[in-house]
Amino acid sequence: MLFLILPLWIFFAEKSFQRGNGGPKFQKALNAEYLDPKETPLRGDNFKNFKEHPFFRLI
Q1: Using a CB cutoff of 8 Å and minimum separation of 24, what contacts does 43-47 make?
Q2: CA 47 distance to own-chain centroid
Q3: 30-36 long-range CB contacts below 8 Å, 24 or more apart?
Q4: Is residue 40 within 8 Å of residue 47, measured between CB atoms?
Q5: What pTM, to 2 d.p., does this model score?
Q6: Are 57 and 24 in contact (CB under 8 A)?
Q7: pLDDT of residue 8
Q8: What is the DSSP string of the chain?
């Protein structure tokens, strides 16, 4: 029974992720937070060298 349900669950989970559950918005907001000197948790050279987070590509 599990072998029948698992592929369906994976298929529908992938489809809901593709519709966009805020992934790109979240990534943009997180990068903006880290680039803002008032909000960033980074200090010193880490802040100076930060460009963006290395997120995995979204489908």
Answers
A1: none
A2: 20
A3: none
A4: yes
A5: 0.58
A6: no
A7: 65
A8: -HHHHHHHHHHHHHHHHHT-SSHHHHHHHHHHHHHSTTT----THHHHH-----PPPP-
